[in-house]
Amino acid sequence: MRKKKQAAESDVADEIAARLEFLKRNPEFLADIRVYNDLPYGSRKDIAARQREAERVSEKWRLPFILPITGPVDLARVWTPTPVRVVTMNGPSLGEQLRAKRDGRLFTPDQLEGRFVNLEIDTRASIVDLVPLIEKTLRDIYRAKDVKRRRRRPAEAAFQLKVYDLVVGGTKFSAISRKLRRPLTTVKSSFVIATEKIFGAQQKSREVRLAGFTPEDHLATCEICRKANTDKEMCSQARFYVDQDRVSQNYKTGFDTTGELRRTEKD
Length: 267
What we know:
By secondary structure, the chain is mainly α. The chain contains 15 helices and two strands. The protein folds into four domains: about 5-60, no CATH class; about 85-145, no CATH class; about 155-210; about 215-265, no CATH class. The longest helix has 19 residues, at about 5-25.
């Protein structure tokens, strides 16, 4: 049975208290604390020196708590900081962005969005205590950042791919809606999501259906179109290219896309 957050925090506090009780019986440790307490902290220079000494004492005695920098150490008191601490959870501020730009540094889109969270985890704590504390911390972060926690079902990805393939194959959105028995709005949004995942940005159905299509090279590489005697026997991509502006080209300019495609093969 997994330990709950309150039980984990209580156990961490008990471990710190027990560790401190052992150290309080060590004369060398007590001497280090007296020296530390005698250090002044009235100026910025004093605080910097005290910070360095705090780090030295903490490392020497492997202290499971943080020594106060601007006050004396009271061994009658137990510090119980969580072994899981949030270091950063938001994107850089405007000031940080301006300084980075001045220094020639660039933040990635993920950094600007604040997508990643940095946690500081004290590995001296047991994993049994860490797991519930990490989970609780992440839940608090998700709540604070208002992150959508709805799980993406594998069926959603399969549906998006099916819609995309049907659109590329020439099926209209209304026909897909009837075939898959899903609302037309759902079909269209699934297609948009699929194009974002495939191309990194939203694409229109026309752009997708003609992706990679060049009339100059198509007939040389498409087995279906080489054997076709009429445009209806061509592959779906070639048929779409021929049909996309048949009316506007034929009636406005007299240009026949079907003839052009076939002339390309002869040339």
